[in-house]
Here is the input.
Amino acid sequence: MKLKQIINILEEMAPLSYAEDFDNVGLLVGNTETEISGIIVCHDALETVIDEAIAKNCNLVVCFHPILFSGLKKITGKDYVEKSIIKAIKNDIAIYAVHTALDNHKNGVNKIFCDALGLKNIKILVPRQNFIQKLVTYTIPENAEKLRNALFDAGAGKIGNYEDCSFNSQGIGTYMGNENSNPEIGERFEFIETQEIKIEVTFEKHLQSKILKALFSNHVYEEVAYEIYALQNTHQNIGLGMIGELENSMNETEFLHFVKAKMQCGAIRHSELLNKPIKKVAVLGGSGSFAIKNAKHSGADVYLTADLKYHDFYQSENQILLADIGHYESERFTKNYIVDFLKEKITNFAVVLSEENTNPVKYL
Here is the structure.
């Protein structure tokens, strides 16, 4: 398979449009026309992982964290980033990162986190905002069903657990074509008053060009009247973090030991114990101090994340137990998920899980 074909599969798993604006996801090194002989999946595309890829005849590294995060002005091999990039380029190895594109996916990093803890009734902790748009258009009744179905096929009309959602209303449309017009109904310079159907559908903003292509290709009018609005609605299936419930509540100490075992943590730093049972659990893989308020407002008994600073723990304010389980630890099963996903989609060459432990944090 060519790299561009594999990228399509990776985008199915983690659409790049889901990534945060600050992030650097997608193809970092390589040519999309390259024939791929094997894929190795890792957490961090360090030089040791590139060596492993060479040894295992894999010329595509799919990593969670982007090894290239900020701009490089020189590539001289002076640090671990440049050394990895140089070795990858010398050996014709492509590097592709998913990071927050998978963080924000409903089946991504935080769903994997929740599954590892056996949480039930899960939902997004910080739903994505400014991601939904609405299309409004008008057509004759005879064209309405065909047009609606084309918009649905392009990805419009999905709301939560429902598909093919639209609102349709009847009204009177009027128009008069000039000398350059070719009206579907009536003649040039004739004032037309006709029954029309108003169709309204919502869609994720990254689908706009696809939605408009479907609109123009399936509409009967020469000039298509349409409006697109940006909505303030949050997207309940895209966002960072998740919140769910344990099957049975635990005391705080018992719960922290449970998390330490399940997530294979070297240590857990936490705020003061509140002597309250733990039932409702909020999680956010990776650096999650920004979502402490969201966890508190959600009514969670505990918030599991990573990279909490000294003053972040004060935000507990005797309302919630805050626990830093480690950055790598909170995302540790993500690469396993990526391997399983790719193996299901690709069967004609090897997809292997890297054996390198790239966690830079060690514990006594």
About this structure: The mean pLDDT is 96. The chain has eleven helices and 15 strands.
